[in-house]
C-alpha cells in the first residue's frame, strides 16, 4: 500500500527487502509490569523515547494504555489502546527511502500503575547488505537527496553505538549547500 500510494515502481520495492531470506526482520515481545504508585508525579518509563530504525514496525498490544508519540512541538500524545488493531510505525530506513516524505516518529511507552502491558512488534528490516538511499523513482536527482547512501549494516552498527533517544539519522544527512541567511 505504501508503494502504491507513493507511486513507487516496481511495486514490490519495499516488500522484497523484508521478504528476502536474508532480511534482518524480527518479532519482539515486550512486557511492562504494573508500575508502583507514582512518587511525586514521577513518570514511570516502560521503554524510553526512540524511533524504530527498520523500514517498518507493526505493533499489536493488549488493551492497556502507555504508548505515546512525540509531536513536532516536543509534546507527548497518548495513543488510545486498542487490542484489535495494528499500529504501523515508519522506520528510519523508510524515512530515508522516501527522502523525508514519511517521517519516523519518536515514541515511548509509559508503565501503567494499574495494569500490565504486553506488546508484540514485528520489525521489518532489510538484509544487512541492502543499500539504503532515497528511491530514484521518488528523487531522480542525487543532488536533491537529503541523506547519504549507506548499508543497513552500517546504520544498524551506528544505531547500536548511540543512546536510545539519539537522533540517529543525523550522521547520514547530507549537508545543505543552500543555507539561507537568517
UniProtKB/TrEMBL annotation:
Cited InterPro entries: IPNS-like_FE2OG_OXY, IPNS-like_sf, Iron_ascorbate_oxido_reductase, Oxoglu/Fe-dep_dioxygenase_dom
Domain Fe2OG dioxygenase, chain residue ranges per copy: 22-126
SUPFAM superfamilies: Clavaminate synthase-like
One Pfam family linked to the record: 2OG-FeII_Oxy
Stated name of the protein: Fe2OG dioxygenase domain-containing protein
Taxonomic placement: Eukaryota, Viridiplantae, Streptophyta, Embryophyta, Tracheophyta
Amino acid at each position: 500500500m505504501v508503494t502504491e500510494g507513493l507511486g513507487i515502481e516496481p511495486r514490490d520495492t519495499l516488500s522484497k527487502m523484508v521478504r528476502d531470506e536474508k532480511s534482518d526482520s524480527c518479532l519482539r515481545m515486550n512486557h511492562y509490569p504494573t508500575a508502583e504508585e507514582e512518587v511525586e508525579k514521577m513518570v514511570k518509563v516502560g521503554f524510553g523515547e526512540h524511533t524504530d530504525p527498520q523500514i517498518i514496525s507493526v505493533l499489536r498490544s493488549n488493551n492497556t494504555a502507555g504508548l505515546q508519540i512525540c509531536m513536532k512541538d516536543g509534546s507527548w500524545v497518548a495513543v488510545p489502546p486498542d487490542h484489535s488493531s495494528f499500529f504501523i510505525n515508519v522506520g528510519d530506513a523508510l524515512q530515508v527511502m522516501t527522502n523525508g516524505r514519511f517521517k519516523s516518529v519518536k515514541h515511548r511507552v509509559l508503565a501503567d500503575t494499574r495494569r500490565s502491558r504486553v506488546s508484540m512488534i514485528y520489525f521489518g528490516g532489510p538484509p544487512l547488505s541492502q543499500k539504503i538511499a532515497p528511491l530514484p523513482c521518488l528523487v531522480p536527482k542525487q543532488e536533491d537527496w537529503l541523506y547519504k547512501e549507506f548499508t543497513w549494516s552500517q546504520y544498524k552498527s551506528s544505531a547500536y553505538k548511540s543512546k536510545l533517544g539519539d537522533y540517529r539519522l543525523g550522521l547520514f544527512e547530507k549537508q545543505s549547500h543552500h543555507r539561507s541567511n537568517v
